[in-house]
Amino acid sequence: MSTRSWAEPYKIKAVELIRMTTREQREAAIREAGYNTFLLRSEDVYIDLLTDSGVGAMSDRQWAGLMTGDEAYAGSRNFYHLRDTVEKYYSYKYMVPTHQGRGAEHILSQILISDGDYIPGNMYFTTTRLHQELAGGTFVDVIIDEAHDPLSEHPFKGNVDIEKLDALVEKVGADHIPYICVATCVNMAGGQPISLANIREVRAWCDRNNVLLVHDMTRVAENAYFIQKREDGYADKSIQEIVFEICSLTDVATMSSKKDAMVNIGGFLAMNDPDLYEKACGLVVVYEGLHTYGGMAGRDMEALAIGITESVDDDHIHARVGQVEYLGERLERAGIPIVKPIGGHAVFLDARRILPHIPQEQFPAQALAAALYLESGIRSMERGVVSAGRDKVSGENIMPKLELVRLTIPRRVYTQAHMDVTADAVIRITENAAQIQGLRFVYEPKVLRFFQATFDPVID
Ligand code: PLI
Questions:
Q1: pLDDT recorded at residue 351
Q2: Annotation says 309 is catalytic
Q3: Looking at residue 272, what is its pLDDT?
Q4: Intra-chain end-to-end CA distance of the chain, in Å
């Protein structure tokens, strides 16, 4: 194992200026945003830890790649470069580009899911589950129980519980399970990895039950980092080798390239089965664009091909996750309740334990995210009951065990000093946590409510 520090394997060539705000300005901004950090203007944000999606810093090579964009409607040179890169690093033979990850989820769900089907997965992701439901399916959580416990130190909290899969087959029959969706570095669990041993078990289960294995590979390189660090037999394997091995065990992949692959926009649906590819080509032309550009410009496909190559570099990924761990360890040393182990793309604050006086019906994580912004200008994201939404049958709020605020670190964007400012701000607000009030809905959208909902403080 390398003893080198996580220091960044790059130097800074261009900077984007950001602005500090006063408390009065932030008070007005968060009120106007209805206490929803998604509705803040980016100009009013000092350090933006809302997401790691589409906000990474591209390299000089990626920017140079933009200039080589071939914007032909059909058969762009950059498409072939991207297709070959996907096969070389991720193993999948066929690929249709999409505008981002949910474009791929949409097409896949429409092709594979019929009314009344069940789709198991290692915890839900918001857009993934919605597309499954829109296609007539029902998501079933088959992640191990430890994933729902923020204190469990299980090294692979993204693992699938095979007994839960067997129980589902027993209940609904394998014929009603078109595929299982396995995410690498499970976002909603706190950026927690799945082990290769577990992926192999899932593969065997899929073969026994004639069920496809779909890979949400949005953060596969970060997952590979944890396998290299924690799984027996992988310490001497490169990130590139581990990523390839993970992908080779799966049949289909949906990718949001805005994360691991460090582009501002883009995604794809990839597979090995020519029949599935033919069906995907049939739908991509309806919803995204011709099969050789899908939802992407030629220049963006070029930047993506280069970004994929950079994303599997060992030094890159060690620095990337190292920075997240640096922030997490600082918070841990200060006694702040966070999800353990520290995840790959973010540090997750445990809002239940930070704000024990706020019941889950009053959205503690949403309130904590708003309070952090007010204190410091740092933007984070709620990942709790607001994100979980309502049960599609009963209409009741789904009450997840994890009520979290995500401090998501964009790739190659912020410095160690920014991490220190963030840790100091979190420590300050937790010291005054008793003053933070719960929230109630003012406006609740019907779908993916966390994006556009507005709230008011609950005044006792
Ligand atoms: O935001 P998209 O449409 O490019 O990708 C959707 C998506 C799919 N799977 C996973 C695991 C994601 O994390 C994901 C998007 N995540 C966002 C936007 C995030 O802030 O985490």
A1: 98
A2: no
A3: 98
A4: 54
Rg for the chain, CA atoms, rounded: 21
Cis bond before residue 178 (omega within 30° of 0): no
Check: CB of residue 422 under 8 Å from CB of residue 49. Answer: yes
**CA dihedral sign of residues 221, 218, 261, 212:** positive
- From 122, 125, 194, the mutation candidate for ligand 1 (largest count of ligand atoms within 8 A of CB) is 125
Angle in degrees, CA 208, 213, 218, rounded to 5: 155
Domains of the chain in sequence order: 23-52+314-457 (3.90.1150.10), 60-311 (3.40.640.10)
Pocket test for ligand 1, best of 48, 127, 265 (most atoms within 8 A of CB): 127
**Contacts of 166 by beta carbon, 8 Å cutoff, 6+ apart:** 205
3 Cα to the center of ligand 1, angstroms: 32
Phi, psi of 139 (to 5 degrees): -80, 140
| Positions of the chain with pLDDT lower than 50, given as ranges | 1-2
Query: Using CA atoms, how far apart are residues 268 and 258, in angstroms rounded to an integer?
Result: 11
